[in-house]
Write a structure and sequence with these properties.
307 residues; alpha/beta; Rossmann fold; five-stranded antiparallel sheet; 15 strands; binds adenosine-5'-triphosphate; binds magnesium ion
């Protein structure tokens, strides 16, 4: 049985000398809410655009439900992958219902009025559905964008920063909406700058930095991080230190900043002893508050440099 919605292999996108997405290999489980987290310019939109067929990979490939993307017929792609990237392409002079009808027409989908009303109800736009969308707030436009992405009853929904700019009430409603979509068996791929925005939503997280996936966690692992301690060890030879310590305890992970450990505080005296035997010096050892944004920062190069 195939259980991945999207599998990428060495997926890469270059814009001239900029490598927006760099050799990404990952699996997005079917039925998951997959959070893609990264700062400005990290490569989130570019990656999602490739999944949506709006950008063409420079190298590498990906499959949708185990079928190579290039082998899927265009109509099927458009219906089976719902997309909201950047602003939804709304016709401002139309109301919400007509925008949805227009979208359906463009995709060659026969939708009845009842289904359109159902979708608008589902995204919470029932009361405003007859108003011209030029008067819509950001949150209303986002909701309509999601309804438009849902028009072909897609298996996979790609949403680029759908929570950005929403008020707290809007965020809560979006979370409910996402859970309802997941309950229907859909796979949701959602990008965000902030892990905390998706922290009670996603089932899986991938952190992207300078086009590379630097870390992946499940929501269960994240819960574990948050309830246990987090430690950062720096040495003069981090990769060698990692080899030694990881062999003894698999909780040790290598990050660009040093070695990260999550759990009860490891035995420091023993660590120093092991490192000494291999002529490695410890430079620092810090306990970190188990802050989820902090966890992400452990895995980025932390220079804050935007390409
Ligand atoms: N059409 C394009 N032409 C040239 N460079 C591009 C293009 N699209 C993206 N880039 C570059 O690729 C890199 C990744 O951009 P991308 O938009 O994917 O990042 P992002 O993670 O979505 O950022 P943000 O959080 O700001 O939306 C950036 O350096 C960006 O300047
Ligand atoms: Mg973006």
């Amino acid at each position: 049985m195939n259980d991945t919605a999207i599998t990428t292999s060495g997926l890469t996108k270059k814009y001239g000398s900029i490598i927006a997405v760099n050799d990404v290999t990952l699996k997005i489980p079917k039925g998951s809410i997959f959070g893609l987290i990264g700062r400005n310019g990290a490569g989130k939109t570019t990656m999602l655009k490739m999944f949506a067929g709006l950008a063409y990979p420079t190298a590498g490939s990906f499959t949708i439900n185990d079928t190579p993307y290039n082998n899927i017929v265009k109509e099927k792609k458009l219906k089976k992958i719902g997309v909201l990237i950047e602003e939804p392409g709304l016709n401002k002079g139309f109301n919400a219902r007509d925008n949805l009808k227009f979208k359906a027409l463009g995709l060659g989908i026969n939708v009845n009025e009842a289904h359109i009303d159902e979708l608008l109800q589902f995204v919470g736009l029932n009361a405003a559905k007859m108003r011209k969308t030029k008067g819509y707030s950001l949150g209303m436009r986002q909701r309509l964008g999601i309804a438009m992405a849902l028009i072909g009853d897609p298996d996979i929904l790609i949403l680029d920063e759908p929570i950005n700019g929403l008020d707290p009430q809007g965020i809560i409603e979006m979370r409910t909406l996402f859970h309802n979509l997941q309950a229907q068996g859909k796979t949701l791929i959602i990008s965000s700058h902030l892990l905390s925005e998706l922290s009670r939503i996603a089932t899986h997280y991938a952190f992207i930095d300078h086009g590379k996936i630097v870390h992946e966690v499940t929501s269960a692992q994240l819960d574990e991080y948050q309830t246990s301690g987090l430690y950062l060890l720096k040495t003069n030879k981090n990769p060698q230190a990692y080899e030694l310590l990881h062999a003894l305890d698999e909780k040790w992970e290598l990050s660009p900043q040093g070695l990260v450990y999550s759990g009860e505080q490891p035995d420091l005296a023993k660590i120093v002893e092991i490192l000494k035997q291999s002529d490695i010096s410890m430079l620092s050892f810090n306990a970190k508050a188990p802050d989820i944004e902090e966890i992400f920062m452990q895995y980025t190069d932390n220079q804050g440099e935007i390409l």
